[in-house]
Amino acid sequence: MIKIIKATLQDVPVIQSLAATIWPVTFKDILSQEQISYMMDFMYSDSALEQQIGVHHHQFLLAQQNNNYIGYLSFELDYKSDTKTKIHKIYLLPEVQGQGVGKRLFEEVTALALQHGNQTLSLNVNRDNSAVDFYKRIGFNIVGEENIAIGNGFLMEDYIMERPIGLPM
Ligand SMILES: CC(C)(COP(=O)(O)OP(=O)(O)OC[C@H]1O[C@@H](n2cnc3c(N)ncnc32)[C@H](O)[C@@H]1OP(=O)(O)O)[C@@H](O)C(=O)NCCC(=O)NCCS
What we know:
By secondary structure, the protein is an alpha+beta fold. The protein has helices at 12-27, 33-44, 46-54, 101-116, 131-137; strands spanning 2-6, 59-65, 68-76, 84-92, 120-126, 141-151, 154-164. It contains five helices and seven strands; from the N terminus they run E-H-H-H-E-E-E-H-E-H-E-E.
């Protein structure tokens, strides 16, 4: 059975451990090893996660299967003071992908965003990530693209994708 729970600061080590397993597999054919290591530190160090949760109001959901953690999603309500909810991260262990857990996490965040009065879900995804097709499957459209410089000469080469929250999943 899949359970979705809200994470707290105490769950930071769980998020870090899941990311350390999922990230290298997800990006092995998309980013260099150097960029993966750089981004892991940039996004998942203790201080980075504490900033995201404590300062930038990112909320993390954790997915559990038989009491084991299998993935996470992070989101931010009222993104840039707009009626948008930004999905910052969604990562599932390779062995549970394709079993509907990603969709479950999106149903959960959609309910929370709707309850909060937001109207749009928005996210960035690497243009070479096959997750683009997952997002299309659950109703997202590509609305733009951007290359974001993240330091050390590295770029995030993303699509921006959005979906109206009211649209049935
Ligand atoms: C992307 C991800 C979150 C999707 O979650 P998931 O649990 O694997 O997807 P689901 O099983 O909920 O799939 C929902 C639907 O999308 C489809 N789908 C999922 N991944 C897909 C893909 N890569 N390409 C095409 N369709 C896909 C499924 O077939 C399913 O379709 P259906 O409703 O007709 O059965 C998950 O695969 C993952 O963690 N991937 C690695 C990390 C990653 O890339 N994260 C995104 C970073 S921006």
